[in-house]
Design goal:
By secondary structure, the chain is α+β, with helices and mostly antiparallel strands. It has 29 helices and 27 strands. About 45% of the residues lie in helices and about 20% in strands. Bound molecules: adenosine-5'-triphosphate. It comes from Sporotomaculum syntrophicum.
Amino acid sequence: MLVQDIMIPCNITVQPGQTALEAWRIIKETQLIGLPVTDRQGVIIGIVSRNEIINCGPIVLEESIKVQDIMQQEVYVLKEEAPVSDAWTLPANVFPVVDNSGVVTGILDRSDVGHALFKVASQMFQQIETIMDSAHNGIVSIDKDGIISTFNLAAERITHRKKSEALGKHLSEVIIPRGLLDILENGNYQSHYKFSVEYSSGTHIYLTNRSPIIENGQIVGAIGVFQDISEFEFISEELSSVKQLNKELEAIIESSYDGIIITDRNGQIIRANKAHERITGIPAESIQNMTMADLTAKGVYSQSVVDAVIAQNGTVTLSELTSNHSQLLVTGNPVRNLKGEIVRVVINTRDMSDLNNLKNQLEESIALSERYHGELTQLRSKLIDQPGLIVKSIQMKQVVEVALRLAQVNSTVLLLGESGVGKEVVAKVIHKHSKRSNGAFITVNCGAIPENLIESEMFGYERGAFTGANREGKPGMFELADNGTLFLDEIGDLPLHFQVKLLRALQEREITRIGGTKPIPVNVRIITATNQHLEELVQDGKFREDLYFRLNVVPITIPPLRERKDDIIPLVYNFKKHFEKVYGMKKEFSHQVFKELMEYQWPGNVREIKNVVERLLVTSTEPVIKSVAIPLNNTTPQRQETNKVTVQGILPLKTAQLEMERQLIGYALKELGSTYKAAKALQVDQSTIVRKVNRLKNNGMSL
Ligand SMILES: Nc1ncnc2c1ncn2[C@@H]1O[C@H](COP(=O)(O)OP(=O)(O)OP(=O)(O)O)[C@@H](O)[C@H]1O
């Protein structure tokens, strides 16, 4: 606002020599608040104001009182175009106003200046309030006592408190964050300060700038501008997850072995991966400026899959043969906007030549592996097919396969199975296929050696070691089996006192002959066998646990014949052929014979089959044997068969006793296969059988 806008226009002036009364009359007539006093040249030299004339009282009515007597010489002349605020700062109540050439054009009253400035201030205040209310950010100001003095519309919206409720109240009664009060105390400016407030509806995050209001160096209040950025925070989180997603997508596209290009609906290429460069030879950078039409023009593709996708409004797969004879499978997938319009096409290019090569290689590998498999099976069956060894059932094949594998290593093997199942046969297979096959295979039937002889049998003795010993001394089984295999059958019958010695020999790999002082190193592979339950013997204290663990390194269980019936007929044929050769005869078995043999439970297992076949061949007079004439299951006689012993003449009782024992024990051993079983069947101790067998041998009688 300028001086000319609020001045009272007037060009009347008075001379210093004019009477005060004259000046009073002019003021009264014109209603002016004062008149400028000019000299003869028209220069303003003072001012007479209405108040001053009145203050002079009745004296002004006297002719002698001149203007110069009552005028104020300290006069502040204002230019028409000066801002009104200039007048406010000057110490005068009436101001003469002049134009640019210094001619008096008006009079300005200080109270008009005050009114004008107040009006301007009101307008400005109104404007500031409008500006504050139109601000998106909440604005709150407080005075030095924390009383809210400003609270704009955005603050209303953000805090859900009415301006009318907020103004004049202490800040802590209106809003939760009290940070503005801290500013009153510390006077620090706080910029971009983030804080969150928990509401029942959820958490809101705010960003605020707070600053103190300072007047004359004193904090008189504080103002805070704040913004609810919960939405931005959410968007920012969304944005970073979208960015992450974009990165992942890029990584996926780049890691694809297939070529991938993305175009807009017009075929303009937006993106292509490295694999596409590998397949087509067009650098991924230069392809960015191309279209699908360019690629077809270059002969990379014979037709545009983008056009096909647009035409068919869906996924399209095309088969392409490139100029360098690569076969490509090109699939275009449309990407649609919310309206369902196609906006992008993602093209996957697969080089089928690689796949075809791989397919061919795979087929070749399969053929090769089938050939190797066939050869392996042949080799395996060649290995399994040992002369005189029948391995037809799956169970027995598994046993022999394991045995062949174990032949390659030196582990101690424990063969488990009923009497006559073929434990010794399997032990021999292991030995025969091992690196020790050139060494000896020594079998020791632990149950057949008298307790007092076992050590000398196993470890040998030096000359003169004991009475009755060979003069020259004798090597034991360990020495005989050096560099070969020692098969310890019926290991469960080993006397306890010898078990500890055997364990030491196995651990130290050396033995000491009886009567000897020097240990003899031996390189022997130990295979043991038993038809007893060693764990039970261990529990009963009849077998040392440490020896049991030392021997039970690799156990192989040979199933009984009744559990592998597929072996029965091949075994029968095998033994038939064998005994026909031995006895020089040829006979046939009827269907009935095979049926009976198949149905029988074979408690004596393979050994029993062997005996039965021999018996059938030698006892039958017919060329075709019609049935198994002898009772098959007569292997474990429990009844007293008194009529089985016949006396045909007189002979010494001792001789008769020996002969009876020879026949009976010999029969039992042949039928049942072990001293253990024979002892059980004859209802005596096993040691009795062993003792009697030795007595018979000592009497020159063979079993
Ligand atoms: N698979 C087989 N093929 C041919 N003959 C076999 C087969 N299995 C065992 N035999 C024969 O059966 C008889 C008994 O076999 P072997 O002595 O190996 O049995 P074992 O289990 O060791 O018996 P024991 O426990 O009584 O010592 C032997 O004459 C052996 O040749």
